[in-house]
Write a structure and sequence with these properties.
Two copies of one chain form a homodimer. Chain A is α/β, with parallel strands linked by helices. Chain A contains nine helices and 14 strands. The relative contact order of chain A is 0.14.
């Protein structure tokens, strides 16, 4: 059971976990996914919880990233401050089982009034960089429950900002007065583009959200447009935060993450006049895990 | 059982209802409140549901306002479009029981791209106006689940804008990643003022919300400040929408509604350099109900 024979890379989040078996040459040979996120594991229960992964994918060393390294996870892996590269992450791995289970630290931003944290995205972003999928100077948009806008400078994570766009969309969809309007998946339709436009141009998100309902009540907008428009509105507002500042103007823009989300963000970025490269977050995660495993072996 | 002998005024909302017995001379003689909002009443169940109010407060005519007039209520009372005054509301009462139970219509805004609706607040605002508590030209802020900013012009509701600030605060508090930080009631502390300041100055609400959590994780802000700061942040952002436009500069600013909320909004308005008159929404509602009953009698 040595790293040279291969390893299992785990992206262990709050509500889900994904595990991938990578052979010694880096090839993906098997994978699994289940709903056993860290919140479903009791304190002290991680050694047991990890057994089900090994039973399924083999008794190999493991490299874990995501919320598994948070203060609610298995062992806390303290944040590496920006600017951060893959070398620093490798140097600060925390071993949950010596030599067998390494946990990748998250990255923090703590500079003057700015404060932010990430856990998991850093492996994807620095992995994409290591694999040459992204250049060393880029603006990366990583949509998800907590969208991240990450500035890469000279091959390092220089800074980033988290926007709670995905979480708000979920809250609205599950618990708000708009819930019954937000059925179905959002797509990049004409209504979506109109929402993006409004979000980019106007600074009135919480008012415009109510207008969606009012326009439908007053028969001014078809009900079928509500979901796409609202999704566009939220993403447009998100872009206004993410594209702000001088850095946003330079270098390439990348949308990285789950393809159904990067597709929406790339469409919104196009509406804002920016062409984005889309990168599958899973592919980027595996690239990052491979590179970290190499550094462990070295 | 005639209006001259007195009546019962009911503010029947989505999740609660309040009923007040007013004598022939307008004096408040009894009141009740319970959790039987319209969502707890099945279709066709309103005649039964109203019996419990009559049993408690007497067999008197009733005047009802709020969501009871919506398409999920007893009988739908179509919106009166802006500009709207108390006369129009009286002329468009809908009778759920002829001569016995009148339902007050809500007010709508449907002008070009603007669309908005209210049900319940109009009785308070026009009531305060009728009672001389507010001047005929004013900007009224009515905090609640759905905050309303209402422009009064020459004694009429000229326009208004709803901001989902209260609902977002509740969603964050009950279901979000910030939930454990948002315990306790928010108060107008120094942290609250800092949040208001940020909300007034910066257009990054959904990012700043995540920063609250990040600053606490990184030890940059005391956890005890989170609730006040977040409340201030949301209210500051709300004010930026409400105080926008030329109208906002002229006339008095009024904060009307539940005293624990008008107190917070008045504090935030002070931070924005505006002194607000606070008016208890219940008092204003009773003033409006009395005036409408007079118009019914006439």
């Amino acid at each position: 059971m040595s790293w040279a024979e291969g390893f299992i890379a785990v992206d262990w989040g709050t509500t889900n976990r994904r595990a991938y078996r990578l052979a010694g040459d880096g090839a993906l040979s098997d994978e699994m996914e289940d709903g056993l996120g860290i919140l479903s594991v009791e304190s002290g229960g991680f050694p047991d919880s990890v057994r089900t992964i090994r039973e399924r994918l083999g008794d190999l060393p493991m490299l874990m990233a995501g919320m598994i390294g948070s203060n609610r996870g298995w062992v806390e892996a303290p944040y590496v401050p920006c600017p951060a590269a893959l070398d620093e992450l490798a140097a600060r791995l925390v071993w949950a089982e010596p030599g067998r289970v390494a946990i990748v630290p998250g990255v923090s931003l703590d500079r003057g009034g700015e404060a932010d944290v990430m856990r998991g995205e850093e492996v994807q972003i620095l992995g994409a960089l290591a694999a040459g999928l992204v250049g060393g100077d880029a603006l990366v948009c990583h949509p998800g429950t907590h969208n991240k806008w990450i500035r890469l400078e000279r091959g390092r994570i220089a800074g980033f900002r988290t926007v709670m766009t995905g979480e708000l969309f979920n809250l609205l969809r599950e618990h708000s007065i708009l819930a019954d309007l937000l059925d179905g998946p959002a797509g990049p339709s004409r209504a979506f583009a109109a929402g993006v436009r409004h979000g980019l141009d106007e600074d009135d998100l919480l008012a415009e959200l109510f207008s969606v309902r009012a326009r439908i009540l007053l028969g001014k907008q078809p009900r079928e447009e509500a979901c796409d428009y609202t999704s566009g509105l939220l993403i447009g507002s998100d872009l206004r935060v993410g594209l702000r500042g001088a850095e946003a103007g330079a270098g390439e823009v990348v949308a990285m993450g789950r393809p159904e989300l990067t597709r929406l963000f790339a469409a919104a970025l196009r509406e804002a006049g920016r062409e984005a490269i889309e990168i599958d977050g899973e592919k980027a995660f595996l690239a990052g895990a491979r590179k970290l495993a190499e550094l462990v072996k070295a």
